[in-house]
Amino acid sequence: SLCVLVATTEEDEEAHRFVQEFKARRIALKLTQSDIGEELNLRAGARYGQSYISRMESIQLSTAIVLRMKPLLLKLLEEKEEERRRMKQNMDFDEEKYHIDKKRKKRT
């Protein structure tokens, strides 16, 4: 079997950690790769899509590109997380108060 050793730099490790964190936070926010691509298009004015985010998450983009995108992606995630927190705070109703029992219809 062929064993190839790849030297990784601190930047490579930072990019890899960021990608793992980014993906976990994106999934927790229930955002798709396409959602992220569309948000990037609105913010950066460039053309990003689902395939770009997929390639980033599977470590197919260079470390330099990932690290260049990191501030923008972190800002996007932070804004989306804040948006979610505000939405939860605004939902001040008591779910149990509005709980509706689904009763089976009586059949004769």
Order of helices and strands: HHHH
Number of helices: 4
Radius of gyration: 21 Å
Largest sheet: none
Would you count the extended β strands for me? 0
Give the termini distance in whole angstroms: 72 Å
Classify the helix fraction into a percent range: 55-70%
Strand content: under 5%
**Contiguous runs where pLDDT drops below 50 for at least 5 residues:** none
The global form is: elongated
Structural class call reads mainly alpha
Mean of the pLDDT scores? 83
Question: What does the secondary structure layout of this molecule look like, with pairings?
Answer:
Layout: H1 10-28, H2 33-44, H3 50-57, H4 63-90
Helix pairs in contact: 1-4, 2-3
Could you explain how this protein is built, in words?
The longest helix has 28 residues, at 63-90. This protein has helices at 10-28, 33-44, 50-57, 63-90. It contains 4 helices and no strands.
What are the defining features of this structure?
108 residues, mainly alpha, 4 helices, 62% helix
Summarize, please.
With 108 residues, the chain is mostly helical. The chain has helices at residues 10-28, 33-44, 50-57, 63-90.
